[in-house]
């Protein structure tokens, strides 16, 4: 697989079913490779039993632009691909921001930014308190989402208590004021890797690696957002 | 006394039920230190981070635990309102929010530590049960009942207490039978009884204003109703109107005013300033009913 390849043509076609055309599809793609590798190679979640208590948890904090998320969930069998055709419609369970009560496999409902990491900290604590030592927690954020102060409450706390969870920041340079010094500098005390967000081998290597005594951050860099 | 009772009861619940968790934002952390040492995975102090405190509670609930969340009302409700709305409500996750400070217990601390609007804020959201105990002995059964299910519960603790506990007061409880109905919520009962001592009124009490006991209200109310609440005046106006819809009625809503007092002092001073002491209640009740 080349470093720029999308997961499969089938997934691209699925995203187009929601975004409508080639012109708008790329805006849905910033998360696509990370999501595909997560669901294809890393997460221990059975779509036939999406509520197993010891499953890994993936929390999409960046609820904006969930087309890639829906496409991957559909491709993995969490719901029928037919659902993709009417995203945002009255009769569709798929909204422009995901609702966990409507979509199998969606762990949290998001849209307002800055909520997923705090909830993820609670999920990680809850799993640990119940003895699910092998269950992992992944939270995906956008670089612009880091502007929300609530994230920084969670970032500092997770480092202080050495909570093992994985945050993934998709960096397409969309934060209005940028991140002078780099995104990684905002995560003191975390184990950090910066990868090519289109390179599946790098993504898998960074996400499959377990860190038992500290939170880890994976900054997945993709092409800058336009417009 | 309510705060101490909350600490004792929650400490016991943590020992009895492995599903129980407690999330703090520094407030009362010292009091819960023995519990934290015994249950370090379930007693979590996130520091002065109330948004995170509520988000963590949502995450704990999503894994099947029963989180208790605690701070001053101004921080647990006002500051973290969007986390209450989204990290709990929108996720269909439950928690037990337990506040101290009430409307003006933090009188000497000023308006930053006061929350007269907490119940009204929660009224904008779906599915919240609200308990406002009037005596510390009412607190343990409310907390124990809340620990047994997964719904969203708010327990509002305060310094002001009635002289007598009525632990079984989820519905309207008849305290004194007479003429027009005066409903007292939580710690408003003693001032209401004193204010109406020689007046021909019926007095009913509840420590659970949400859901408001509409059936009880319809059974006890005649044409006039006075509702006395220890938070913003009129907070229950919609609930009373819905309960009495279809029958002619007049209602007087007494509670905390919306204007900032901008004075310090004690909770008793602020109760007087808002007309919620016995003398302050008596005049508007008499003028409304006679």
- The low-pLDDT segments of chain B are none
CATH architectural grouping of chain A: 3-Layer(aba) Sandwich
Annotation, overall tally of beta strands of chain A: 5
CATH topology of the largest domain in chain B: Rossmann fold
- Structural class designation of chain B: alpha/beta
CATH topology of chain A: Rossmann fold
Q: What is the number of helices of chain A? A: 6
The shape of chain B is globular
What series of H and E elements makes up the topology of chain A?
A: HHEHHEHEEHE
Sheet with the most strands: spatial strand order of chain A: 1-2-3-5-4
Determine the structural class of chain A based on helices, strands and strand pairing: alpha/beta
Strand content of chain A: 5-15%
Largest interface: A-B, 30 and 31 residues
Protein name (chain A): Thiamine pyrophosphate-dependent enzyme
Organism (chain A): Paractinoplanes globisporus
What layout of secondary structure does this protein have?
The complex is a heterodimer of chains A (227) and B (290).
Chain A: H1 9-19, H2 32-42, E1 57-60, H3 67-75, H4 116-129, E2 137-142, H5 149-160, E3 166-171, E4 191-196, H6 200-208, E5 216-221
Helix pairs in contact in A: 1-3, 2-3, 2-6, 4-5
Chain B: H1 2-16, E1 20-24, H2 33-38, E2 43-45, H3 50-62, E3 66-72, H4 73-79, H5 81-90, E4 95-100, H6 118-122, E5 128-131, H7 139-147, E6 152-156, E7 173-176, E8 181-185, H8 189-195, E9 202-206, H9 214-220, E10 224-232, H10 237-243, E11 250-256, H11 267-273, H12 278-289
Parallel strand pairs in B: 1-2, 1-3, 3-4, 4-6, 5-6, 8-9, 8-10, 10-11
Antiparallel strand pairs in B: 7-9
């Amino acid at each position: 697989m080349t470093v720029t390849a999308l997961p499969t043509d089938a997934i691209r076609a699925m995203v187009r079913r929601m975004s409508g055309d080639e012109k708008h599809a790329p805006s849905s793609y910033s998360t696509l490779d990370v999501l595909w590798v997560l669901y294809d190679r890393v997460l221990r979640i059975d779509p036939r039993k999406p509520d197993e208590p010891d499953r890994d948890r993936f929390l999409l904090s960046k609820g904006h632009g969930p087309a890639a998320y829906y496409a991957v969930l559909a491709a993995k069998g969490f719901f029928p691909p037919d659902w993709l055709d009417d995203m945002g419609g009255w009769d569709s369970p798929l909204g422009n921001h995901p609702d966990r009560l409507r979509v199998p496999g969606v762990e949290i409902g998001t849209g307002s930014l800055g909520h997923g990491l705090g909830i993820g900290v609670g999920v990680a604590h809850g799993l640990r308190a119940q003895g699910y030592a092998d269950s992992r927690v992944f939270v995906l954020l956008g670089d612009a989402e880091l502007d929300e102060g609530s994230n920084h409450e969670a970032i500092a706390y997770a480092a202080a208590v050495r909570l093992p969870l994985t945050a993934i920041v998709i960096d397409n340079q969309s934060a209005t004021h940028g991140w002078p010094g780099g995104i990684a500098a905002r995560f003191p005390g975390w184990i950090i890797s910066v990868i090519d967000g289109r390179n599946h081998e790098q993504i898998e290597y960074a996400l499959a690696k377990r860190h038992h005594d500290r939170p880890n951050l994976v900054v997945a860099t993709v092409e800058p957002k336009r417009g | 006394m309510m705060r101490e009772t909350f600490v004792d009861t929650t400490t016991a619940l943590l020992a009895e039920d492995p599903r129980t968790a407690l999330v703090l934002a520094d407030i009362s952390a010292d009091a819960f230190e023995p519990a934290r040492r015994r249950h370090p995975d379930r007693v979590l102090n996130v520091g002065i981070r109330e948004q995170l405190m509520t988000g963590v509670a949502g995450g704990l609930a999503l894994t099947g635990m029963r989180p208790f969340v605690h701070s001053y009302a101004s921080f647990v409700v006002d500051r973290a309102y969007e986390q209450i709305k989204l990290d709990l409500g929108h996720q269909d996750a439950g928690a037990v929010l337990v506040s101290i400070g009430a409307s003006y217990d933090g009188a000497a601390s000023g308006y930053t530590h006061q929350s007269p609007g907490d119940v009204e804020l929660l009224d904008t959201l779906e599915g919240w049960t609200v308990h406002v105990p009037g005596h510390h002995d009412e607190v343990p059964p409310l907390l124990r009942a809340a620990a047994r299910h997964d719904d969203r519960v708010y327990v509002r603790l305060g310094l002001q207490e009635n002289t007598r506990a009525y632990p079984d007061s989820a519905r309207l409880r008849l305290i004194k039978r007479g003429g027009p109905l005066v409903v007292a919520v939580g710690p408003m009962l003693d001032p209401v009884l004193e204010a109406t001592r020689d007046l021909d009124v019926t007095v009913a009490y509840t420590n659970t204003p949400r859901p408001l006991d509409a059936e009880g209200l319809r059974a006890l109310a005649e044409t006039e109703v006075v509702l006395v609440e220890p938070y913003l005046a009129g907070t229950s106006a919609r609930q009373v109107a819905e309960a009495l819809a279809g029958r002619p009625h007049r209602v007087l809503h007494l509670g905390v005013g919306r204007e900032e007092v901008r004075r310090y002092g004690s909770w008793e001073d602020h109760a007087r300033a808002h007309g919620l002491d016995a003398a302050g209640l008596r005049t508007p009740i008499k003028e409304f009913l006679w």
